[in-house]
């Protein structure tokens, strides 16, 4: 299988329970909830995405001929040191491309594997840390994992249904658009009303990281 990667980079995890952890991010091209083209945004299931996942022309991106080639590129981005290797599979929607071969290749090189997915496709059982960010109007099938990260406000979200799912951590993240201040207050109010949930911020943006 050929893997289409928009970009790949070494950074610090900016969101969620593992914020601050050193990681190689692999941003896979393509998504099943939006084409990535602005002309399609208003008719897409997910209309608020702030990420460019179209093509393979980003820094560290490209088409990798097999799992071994991609895993080796991830190891090169990590640099020296074989301990505590950590990679985050994101997109777009990474589960459109993740398969046995890639999971095995990354594990063979000592990487712990995390994923950030919209949950509309089952996550590969070999993934070590599952973060699901549900989008209103989509059919979420992956209803268990390590983190549920709800971008808020998001009209149409069935929060009561989400609270029947099986996650270890429940996170609310303010929607990053022109209404950031109001959205942050809405997320704070959400957590104050529902103490199971915790607030998470996009720390990498505040720090100027990718």
UniProtKB/TrEMBL annotation:
InterPro entries: 7-CO-7-deazaguanine_synth-like, Aldolase_TIM, QueE_Cx14CxxC, rSAM, rSAM_sf. S-adenosyl-L-methionine binds at residues 48-50, 92, 133-135, 173-176. Its EC number is 4.3.99.3. Residues 18-210 form the Radical SAM core domain. It catalyses: 6-carboxy-5,6,7,8-tetrahydropterin + H(+) = 7-carboxy-7-carbaguanine + NH4(+). Substrate binds at residues 12-14, 27, 90. Binds 1 S-adenosyl-L-methionine per subunit. Binds 1 [4Fe-4S] cluster. The cluster is coordinated with 3 cysteines and an exchangeable S-adenosyl-L-methionine. Mg(2+) binds at residue 51. One of its GO terms (biological process) is tRNA queuosine(34) biosynthetic process. [4Fe-4S] cluster binds at residues 31, 46, 49. Its cofactor is S-adenosyl-L-methionine; Mg(2+); [4Fe-4S] cluster. PROSITE patterns: RADICAL_SAM. It comes from the Bacteria. Keywords: 4Fe-4S, Iron, Iron-sulfur, Lyase, Magnesium, Metal-binding, Queuosine biosynthesis, S-adenosyl-L-methionine. GO terms for molecular function: 4 iron, 4 sulfur cluster binding; carbon-nitrogen lyase activity; magnesium ion binding; S-adenosyl-L-methionine binding. Gene3D superfamilies: Aldolase class I. Pathway: Purine metabolism; 7-cyano-7-deazaguanine biosynthesis. The keyword Lyase applies. Catalyzes the complex heterocyclic radical-mediated conversion of 6-carboxy-5,6,7,8-tetrahydropterin (CPH4) to 7-carboxy-7-deazaguanine (CDG), a step common to the biosynthetic pathways of all 7-deazapurine-containing compounds. NCBIfam families: queE_Cx14CxxC (TIGR04508). Belongs to the radical SAM superfamily. 7-carboxy-7-deazaguanine synthase family. Homodimer. This is 7-carboxy-7-deazaguanine synthase. It comes from Sphingobium phenoxybenzoativorans.
């Amino acid at each position: 299988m050929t893997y289409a990667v928009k970009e790949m980079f070494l950074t610090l995890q900016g969101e969620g329970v593992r914020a601050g952890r050193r990681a190689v991010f692999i941003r896979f091209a393509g998504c099943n909830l939006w084409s990535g083209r602005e002309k399609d945004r208003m008719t897409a299931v997910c209309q608020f995405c702030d990420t460019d996942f179209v093509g393979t022309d980003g820094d560290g991106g490209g088409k990798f001929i097999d799992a071994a080639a991609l895993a080796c590129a991830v190891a090169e981005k990590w640099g020296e040191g074989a301990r505590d290797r950590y990679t985050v599979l994101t997109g777009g929607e990474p589960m459109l491309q993740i398969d046995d071969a890639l999971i095995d290749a990354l594990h063979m090189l000592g990487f712990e594997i995390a994923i950030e997915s919209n949950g509309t496709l089952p996550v590969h059982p070999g993934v070590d840390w599952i973060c699901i960010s549900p989008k209103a109007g989509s059919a979420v099938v992956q209803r268990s994992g390590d983190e549920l990260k709800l971008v808020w406000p998001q009209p149409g979200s069935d929060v009561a249904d989400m609270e029947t799912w099986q996650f270890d951590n429940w996170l609310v993240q303010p929607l990053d658009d022109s209404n950031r201040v109001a959205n942050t207050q809405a997320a704070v109010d959400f957590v104050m009303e529902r103490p199971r949930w915790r607030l998470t911020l996009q720390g990498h943006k505040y720090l100027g990281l990718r």
